[in-house]
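PROTEIN–LIGAND DATA SHEET

This sheet pairs a single protein chain with one bound small molecule, copper (II) ion, given as SMILES. Inputs appear in the order they were entered. The predicted three-dimensional arrangement of chain and ligand is reported afterwards as a token string under its own label.
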Amino acid sequence: MKKQTITVIVTTVITVLVLITAFIFLMPILGPRYMHPMMMGSQPVPANLDMSTSHLSDNGLFLVSWTSDPTPPPLNQIHTWTIHVETADGQPVEDADITVNGGMPQHGHGLPTSPQVTQNLGNGDYLVEGMKFQMPGWWEVRFNISADGQNDTVTFNLILE
Ligand SMILES: [Cu+2]
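PREDICTION REPORTED AS:
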């Protein structure tokens, strides 16, 4: 082979290797935001989703509502929520143990962070820190609430754009 041909082949091989390496390293960074929705396809959100920010827990024990700061919840930014918990007859629940989870039902993944209730603000209000949503679409946020020996779960839907 001519020297020139060998140079072209070597250059091509090196370029391809560099591109593959760059792709592998960039995937974890760009992946969640740019690749994942494409891989998952964009499925239509169910038409009858309950999008209310205040409703009863699954077994009717607690009336729960949420607000976010900022409002609406931002994409790709750690932020806080405040949730308010009352009994079904409207008394604030002051000393609840609350855990947070959630995810995207259509993508089969959870939240990218592990949000925690970090402050009991009194009067049935609780501060949730570490909320984050890393892509647009339909998200579920679930709170498991224990108070006075009783436990119930409430699930909120939200659609981020
Ligand atoms: Cu997703």
